[in-house]
Design a protein that fits this description.
mainly beta, Tachylectin-2, Chain A, eight-stranded antiparallel sheet, six-stranded antiparallel sheet
Length: 799
């Protein structure tokens, strides 16, 4: 292994940064939540400010009709909200508040999570305005409207800020941020993480005019009762802090809405004292890492996009990250609570029974919208509760590791309907993904590996999809082991095609971004415990086990897991946001999972574990300029009908790098729309591009049974994008030469050329020719044309 001398921009990542706040420390200047309402049932929790129950007409008793719940499915916490009638109901705090902190600064932030049935007129979310003092956040005819009153000698200044567009029957997150600056106040209004209005005052006058009126949720107060601006709809929570919450590192963070607490924002750090809350800790974690905070240098890797990881509030721990290469991210997660109970403690027959939720697969878009959530079943069709390691996507399938096994799930089996992030409709997350369609046990994992911790799929230089696997280890160098995927998505588990030694410890994820006939390059992610995570760029000479170079390209917060590349963006996720790592103290460590002592002072069954300091609860993308560049060997595949290729004639999207989908389906399956989106024939080549060597062989794979024709053209049709032709795309054209007719059988669904391609095509050194394979598809042809084509393949001939 060669660890390169690092260039300046990489070396700078080692410059010490301020440490994030340790778990449980106090926030600076007495910063805290001075008022919080969050809906509850029964006794008021400690994280909800005291309520004046003598007014307002709202009951929080168990079974109250004032409380509305969203049943999110078995194993998922119900989200409850208070339902206000818009006429007389409200919630009044038991005492007034003051936003002045210990340094004498009166900045503040109001945050509210709500779903309005009516947005007409004034609708108060929270207000303490009375006697020409206080502040409020309301709706005004479908807009957000903030109001702050400032002391001005013996009088006051009324400053209003209006913006955004609030739709009825839609869950909305709003924030009013008021920050004292030098000689003025900065007012900012946010809706769902976007800045929607800005106002800078003409002066700072004599500061915010604090009110003696108690904060009121759902109405405008006067002398202790609600008098107007009654809110109609559901309010989940409202909070007021005595400081201006960070914008870049908190208010503008987007969430993958999962219908859990605070729409998926991490919420198990709810304090009404000065203990650092999630906003402080997230912001300080981000600022401690230069390439994460936005302080990166030109041409340097940096975190570009981040979303709150879904299901952290439900005690799930994220592990695997996969993508379809276009617009979908797949996250695998397993359940583990703050006391360490996970799938190994699932004991349904014990007394009392211990029921652990199953591992799940989360599908989301690259724009941060949740699509669906599926519980994983094992090969016996029982719910799978184990550690899920990495995840890989290929051709409509998800691959999940388990020990030295690989389970492959067909997403066409996935239940629906999909989730609606605005209304939280279709929120049931207890739908099963049918047990694996393919199960490869006891895989040959090379010399050093004993299990699979992570995996990914990428194309080799000739377009062959490779399933890359590897193992996490902190003490010895494990291996990258690659298997060629066959047309049906299976692989020869006993015969890996590639084995390379890992040059670093603690590897959590891998993805290959470049493959040529001479070289293969990977991105590796590493993390262990509450230590900084890292991404390395690792190069190998093809067939040589040892890396030729290993460069550190990014340092990030603790807990980075798997990797998935889309274009120049490398997606990952941090497990630092998991409740287990944030709230643990004494955790279970019993020798018999179904027989243990509940007394946490029993050292035989329990042990001490320290919570992590880093809090980075995000799924995020790292932008790495030049990730998709690379050379080829004999030639270059082009004109793909796959997910990132050209549009196919009837939306029959094929496999990445291949042609448009044909009628082939997996064994034991019936053709349907999902299968048509998973199959496409592929053209590749072997030998060399030398005219004198005359050893070039064309190969078409993943075909249907029947005849086909290899042909040559001078041009890449439509600038290489091809044009619709039959069920596929015609990619090669101009002075077409028919090279050879071949016949594919059910033995391999593959053909190879047997003629001299150079002689038959009449090529000369220096010429560039394009090749393609036309084939008969007499099955259930997706577009009913009964013929299709592979991708194109471009060869520049040498002497």
């Amino acid at each position: 292994m060669i660890l390169h001398s690092l260039p300046l921009y990489i070396a700078l990542s080692f410059i010490p940064s301020p440490e994030p706040a340790a778990f449980g420390e106090d926030a600076p200047y007495g910063h805290k939540v001075v008022y919080r309402y969050r809906c509850f049932e029964g006794a008021r929790p400690s994280w909800v400010s005291p309520i004046d129950t003598s007014v307002g007409g709202v009951s929080h008793s168990v079974g109250s009709t004032d409380i509305s719940g969203i049943n999110r499915g078995q194993g998922f916490e119900e989200m409850i909200s208070v339902d206000l009638d818009g006429q007389s109901e409200f919630i009044r705090a038991n005492s007034p508040i003051d936003t002045t902190d210990d340094a004498g600064t009166d900045s503040f932030t109001i945050q509210a999570w709500f779903n309005a049935r009516s947005t007409d007129g004034y609708r108060a979310l929270v207000s303490n305005t009375q006697g020409y003092a206080g502040f409020s956040l309301k709706l005004l005819d479908g807009k957000l409207r903030g109001l702050v009153r400032f002391e001005d000698g013996g009088g006051y200044q009324n400053i209003e800020i209006i913006g955004g567009d609030v739709s009825p029957h839609t869950w909305t997150y709003a924030a009013l941020r008021v920050k004292k600056q030098n000689g003025f106040y900065e007012l900012r209004l946010f809706q769902d993480g976007d800045l929607v209005a800005s106002v800078d005052t003409a002066s700072d006058w004599d500061g915010v005019r604090q009110s003696t009126e108690h904060p009121m949720v759902g109405a405008e107060p006067s002398s202790g009762v609600g008098v107007d601006s009654f809110f109609e709809g559901r309010i989940y929570a409202v909070s007021v802090t005595n400081y201006a919450v960070g914008i870049d590192n908190f208010l503008e963070n987007k969430g993958v809405r999962d219908a859990s607490r605070y729409f998926g924002m991490v919420s198990y750090h709810d304090y009404l004292d000065t203990t650092t809350g999630p906003d402080h800790r997230i912001s300080e974690t981000i600022e401690a890492y230069r390439q994460v905070s936005g302080d990166h240098l030109p041409n340097e890797a940096y975190v570009q996009t981040r979303y709150y990881s879904p299901f952290m509030n439900d005690k799930y721990i994220p592990q695997g990250v996969a993508s379809n290469g276009v617009d979908r991210i797949y996250l695998s997660m397993y359940w583990k609570d703050e006391e360490g109970f996970d799938g190994s403690y699932h004991c349904p027959d014990s007394d009392p029974p211990i029921i652990i939720p199953p591992s799940i697969l989360v599908e989301m878009t690259t724009t941060g919208e949740l699509v669906r959530v599926l519980r994983l079943l094992d090969e016996t069709l029982e719910q799978y509760r184990g550690h899920v390691g990495g995840a890989a996507y290929w051709s409509g399938h998800i691959y999940i590791p388990r020990g030295d096994d690989v389970l492959r799930y067909d997403l066409s089996d996935a239940a629906g309907p999909t989730f609606s992030p605005g209304s939280f409709a279709n929120h049931k997350f207890d739908q099963d993904l049918v047990g694996p369609r393919y199960f490869a046990n006891d895989c040959n994992l090379g010399t050093n590996n004993t299990s699979i911790s992570f995996l990914s799929v990428s194309l080799d230089h000739d377009g062959t999809p490779i399933l890359w696997t590897g193992q996490f280890d902190g003490d010895s160098y494990k291996e990258i082991v690659g298997f060629e995927l066959l047309c049906d998505g299976t692989f020869d588990k006993g015969n890996p095609a590639h084995v390379y030694e890992l040059p670093v410890f603690d590897v959590q994820g891998i993805d290959s971004y470049h493959a040529s006939c001479d070289e293969i390059r990977f991105y590796l992610s590493t993390s262990w415990s509450d230590n900084p995570s890292k991404i390395y760029d690792v190069h190998y000479d093809r067939g040589v086990p040892q890396a030729t170079s290993t460069d550190l390209i990014l340092t990030a917060p603790a807990g980075m897991e798997d990797l998935a590349l889309i274009g120049d963006d490398l997606w990952s996720i941090s497990e630092s946001g998991a409740k287990y790592y944030q709230k643990r103290d004494r955790v279970i460590d019993a020798s018999d999972p179904c027989d243990w002592d509940p007394d946490t002072d029993n050292n035989d069954d329990w042990r001490t574990k320290t919570p992590w300091d880093d809090l980075y609860p995000f799924v995020f993308s790292v932008h790495i300029p030049g990730s998709t560049t690379g050379s080829t060997c004999i030639g270059t595949p082009f004109c793909s009908g796959g997910p990132t290729g050209s549009p196919c004639p009837c939306d029959n999207v094929g496999t990445q790098g291949g042609g448009c989908a044909n009628s082939r389906v997996p064994p034991g399956r019936f053709p349907d729309e999902h299968d048509h989106q998973q199959r496409g024939a592929r053209l590749s080549a072997s030998g060399t591009n030398s005219v004198s060597a005359d050893d070039l062989t064309l190969e078409a794979s993943c075909l249907t049974i029947g005849p086909g024709l290899y042909f040559q053209g001078d041009n890449a049709v439509n600038s290489g994008d091809g044009v619709p032709f039959g069920d596929g795309l015609r990619c090669a054209g101009g002075s077409v030469v028919r090279l050879e007719v071949r016949f594919a059988t059910s033995n391999s669904y593959t053909t190879q050329s047997t003629i001299s391609v150079a002689a038959k095509g009449g090529v000369s050194a220096g010429q560039t020719k394009r090749y393609q394979y036309w084939y008969r598809d007499s099955g259930v042809s997706p577009c009913n044309s009964l013929f299709n084509l592979t991708n194109g393949f471009e060869v520049t001939w040498t002497p």
